[in-house]
Specification:
Catalytic activity: tRNA(n+1) + phosphate = tRNA(n) + a ribonucleoside 5'-diphosphate
Structural class: alpha+beta
Number of helices: 6
Radius of gyration: 18 Å
Enzyme class: transferase
Distance between the termini: 36 Å
Number of domains: 1
Strand order of the largest sheet: 1-2-3-5-4
Number of strands: 9
CATH architecture: 2-Layer Sandwich
InterPro entries: ExoRNase_PH_dom1, ExoRNase_PH_dom2, ExoRNase_PH_dom2_sf, PNPase/RNase_PH_dom_sf, Ribosomal_Su5_D2-typ_SF, RNase_PH, RNase_PH_bac-type, RNase_PH_CS
EC number: 2.7.7.56
Oligomer: single chain
Largest sheet: 5 strands, mixed
Family: Belongs to the RNase PH family.
Length: about 240
């Protein structure tokens, strides 16, 4: 039995509210159970210097957690004077994931920065940030298209992410914190809307896993990502 009483293949409730920030070119608040992440997309008129005169644009991300996103207060990283290794790893992951769904030449020499701020954490924050970050990106690109700044849609496909793991000996979908902190195997899957893989993070936390286990988690991930793509589409209606 899962702590939340969900079925092994059951996602937490998912909602995505768009237009939650006045000034951002694209924004949304994504809620996956008790994990809530505020995502915004900001368009900058020039690409990073390493892309100058290439005709290609860039998508990057920044990620952070509010001090009381968790059950005990975490010190602001700005106050500490540096980002943690975890924060740097996650924001690089978000950037890589979202760039995989973009034709950077069609985007042109400009940059879109995705900011993902965790308001409340209960497991799967990086997955929620990727899924919500894509919605914010989509909204920002829609503005570029509407203004005639880009002539063809640079968004190639939806990008979503979900966690899976082996908890109490069973493969489960969409881990919350109670499961994530006790999982024998922990995995994050990033997929396109067409169920093509962008990135897989999988590690044995307490016991090694088999190829069969990996396949079962992959099947769960595809199921969950189908639901997340549907949630993205619903949010953009």
């Amino acid at each position: 039995m899962r702590p939340s009483a969900r079925h092994l293949d059951q996602m937490r409730s998912v909602s995505i509210e768009t237009g939650v920030m006045k000034h951002a070119e694209g924004s949304c608040l994504i809620k996956m159970g008790d994990t809530h992440v505020l995502c915004s997309a900001s368009i900058e008129d020039k690409a990073p210097s390493f892309l100058k005169n290439t005709g290609q644009g860039w998508v990057t991300a920044e990620y952070g957690m509010l001090p009381r996103a968790t059950n005990t207060r975490n010190r602001r990283e700005a106050a500490a004077g540096k980002q943690s290794g975890r924060t740097q790893e996650i924001q690089r992951l978000i950037g890589r994931a979202l760039r995989a769904g973009v034709d950077r030449r069609a985007l042109g020499e400009r940059q879109i920065v995705i900011d993902c701020d965790v308001l409340q954490a209960d497991g799967g924050t990086r997955c929620a940030a990727i899924t919500g970050g894509w919605v914010a990106l989509r909204l920002a690109v829609n503005k570029l298209i509407k203004a005639g700044i880009v002539t063809s849609d640079p968004i190639l496909d939806h990008v979503v992410a979900v966690s899976c793991g082996i908890y109490a000996g069973q493969p489960v979908l969409d881990l919350d914190y109670a499961e994530d902190s006790n999982a024998g195997t922990d995995a994050n899957f990033i997929l396109t809307g067409g169920a093509r893989l962008i990135e897989v993070q999988m590690s044995a936390e307490g016991a090694s896993f088999s190829r069969v286990d990996m396949g079962q988690l992959m099947d769960l991930a595809e199921l969950g990502c189908t639901e997340l793509v549907a949630a993205q589409k619903l949010a953009l209606v």
